[in-house]
Write a structure and sequence with these properties.
Strand order of the largest sheet: 1-2
Keywords: Signal
Number of helices: 8
Number of strands: 4
Structural class: alpha+beta
Largest sheet: 2 strands, antiparallel
InterPro entries: DM4_12
Distance between the termini: 100 Å
Order of helices and strands: HEEHHHHHHEEH
Radius of gyration: 34 Å
């Protein structure tokens, strides 16, 4: 008899425990709140960013009051779409914008910087030509590889921004085919915008090379 009572007690205890657990799960489901997200207005064509600045100013004791400062700026794009939270690792092709600077824009910046030496265009074309003539290899280390990439237009395939950008590919081809001719071909130096063509080829001749080499370079 005692054994039967023990079985009844165990069954009753099991029923009460299961019922309590189900009630607890039901309450947790009702009281559980999903994560809420704060979205910012759609910036349309522009981007809304959170900017954090860190600055350090160092006053210099000279005859003229001067302050040398260092600034660290961090930009964070603010979310305006729920997918930034629900699917943070998915990027759609239409949302990927190529805002990087092209090779031709970098070349134009270097041209302006080298204009103080004469013709910035000619200096850069000569550097491209000599790099193709004497290619960098593993012996030159990382810096040499970076120079090789920068001064070799064929290292990347980019659309021309202006027709004159073809001259860089022509200069590279000249360096490969005409060994030792880079100095004489790109000898021009500009003074007040006038080309000194004595002993060297003019920019127009480089343009002719560019037109002639387009087919060979598959441009």
């Amino acid at each position: 008899m005692a054994y039967i009572n023990y079985i009844y007690f165990f069954i009753l205890y099991s029923i009460i425990t299961i019922t309590a657990n189900e009630q607890k799960n039901y309450n947790n489901t009702n009281t559980l709140r999903k994560k809420r997200y704060l979205l910012f207005p759609n910036p349309l064509d522009s981007e809304t960013k959170l900017q954090v600045l860190f600055g350090l100013g160092l006053p210099m004791e000279e005859e003229i009051s001067m302050t040398l400062g260092y600034v660290l700026k961090c930009n964070y794009n603010l979310p305006y779409n729920t997918t930034d939270f629900t699917q943070p690792y998915i990027r759609y092709q239409r949302d990927i914008k190529n805002n990087g600077m092209s090779r031709w824009e970098l070349y134009r910046i270097f041209e302006l910087a080298l204009n103080s030496l004469g013709s910035g265009k000619a200096c850069l074309l000569r550097a491209v030509c000599e790099t193709a003539e004497n290619s960098f290899d593993q012996r030159h280390g990382l810096f040499g590889e970076l120079l090789h990439i920068f001064f070799n237009p064929s290292a990347t395939k980019e659309q021309y921004k202006f027709y004159e950008d073809r001259e860089y590919h022509a200069a590279e081809l000249i360096g490969r085919l005409s060994i030792g001719e880079c100095k004489s071909i790109f000898h021009e130096l500009y003074a007040s915008g006038v080309a000194d063509v004595d002993g060297g080829a003019t920019r127009e001749s480089v343009g002719d090379w560019s037109m002639a080499c387009n087919k060979d370079l598959d441009l």
